[in-house]
Amino acid sequence: MDAVLLFWLLSGTFSVALTIFLIVLLSSQKVFSYSFYRLVLVGLILNLLCWINTWPHRLMFRTEGEKFILPIFSIVPGLIRMSCGVFCQTFFHIQSLCIIFTCVHRLTSSMFKNANQLWNQYYLFLYGAITMISLFVANQFTYRKLDFDYETRKFVSTPLPPVSNKMLFIASTFFQEEYNIGDRWILIFITFYFTTILILSLCTFVAIRKRLKNHSQYENVRRRLTQITLANAIIYLIVLLWKLARSYIPYTYSIDVLMTVSDLVTFSMSYMMVLFDKNVQKVMKHCARVVPKLVDPGAVSSSRNSVIGNLRY
């Protein structure tokens, strides 16, 4: 087994175990029934599905993995191709929008009294909407065709023709080069998500400053928001740098980098919950002994203390 695959297995196993633990924790404790934790719960489930979806792509170009993928590919080749193409792209957009959702939730909770109630009512509808939108956008691109060469006994990826994007006829006029337009649009999406997260975080800083400027816990809240913003920014900066460098990396090696970056995005929410959410930290410390009295991060009232509770993560 090569080192990269071993790293994926070890880090992935630990991260998946942590994610499953958080899913069980958030779905079984009544204190985690507030809107923020419902957003996180759905996001964790989608992240877990994304990680599962990446494994055909991880194993396809490895000697150890071909024997597992080939029987499935022989029966349902279309499913494997969709997993490595459309589904991979769909989950990227879903994950990015999930992070943006948590930023929007944080902002609205600091501005409006009834934000928690509205999020509780409509969060499933919103997740359904972003799933459909992400799937629609992903379907507008043409992907490399994956086949199995029975002579060499290896999976092969057919490069795309010069015009490989069905999406948006303005692309041919917006870009001077028509080759690999699909990759250029993905770069635009990454930049858009990165910028949106920063703008929402800045707006949240301003809103919190207005309401908590003279509060004793203002500095703690500001510090925690700064850490969360930096974590999200670093993650998407890494994704952006990978996309810029991708054209200089051979395809088979770019898969290794892609899957590693994908894991970073996929499990970032799990680790950020453990690092920054005070309620989760209290439960993890005391679940074997006593049930702690937790702060409601979703209940928004006119008091300053409720604003602090909303910004635990």
Task: List the defining traits of the structure above.
single chain, about 325 residues, mainly alpha, Rhopdopsin 7-helix transmembrane proteins, two-stranded antiparallel sheet, 13 helices, about 5% strand, globular, transmembrane signaling receptor activity, membrane, NRL-Serpentine_Class_Gamma, 7TM_GPCR_serpentine_rcpt_Srg, Serpentine receptor class gamma
How would you describe the overall organization of this protein?
The longest helix has 32 residues, at 181-212. This protein has a two-stranded antiparallel sheet with strand order 1-2. The protein is mostly helical. The protein has one domain: Rhodopsin 7-helix transmembrane proteins (Rhopdopsin 7-helix transmembrane proteins, Up-down Bundle). It is built from 13 helices and two strands; from the N terminus they run αααααααββαααααα.
Beta content? under 5%
Any low-confidence stretches, pLDDT <50, length ≥5? 164-179, 298-309
Largest sheet: 2 strands, antiparallel
Q: Gyration radius, to the nearest Å?
A: 21 Å
Overall tally of structural domains? 1
> What is the number of beta strands?
2
The global form is globular
Strand order of the largest sheet: 1-2
SSE string, helix = H, strand = E? HHHHHHHEEHHHHHH
Helical stretch count? 13
CATH architecture: Up-down Bundle
What's the name of the CATH homologous superfamily? Answer: Rhodopsin 7-helix transmembrane proteins
Class based on secondary structure composition and strand pairing: mainly alpha
CATH topology descriptor: Rhopdopsin 7-helix transmembrane proteins
CATH class assignment: Mainly Alpha
Q: On the 0-100 scale, what is the average pLDDT?
A: 79
Organism: Caenorhabditis brenneri (Nematode worm)
Family: Belongs to the nematode receptor-like protein srg family.
Keywords: Membrane, Transmembrane, Transmembrane helix
GO molecular function, one term: transmembrane signaling receptor activity
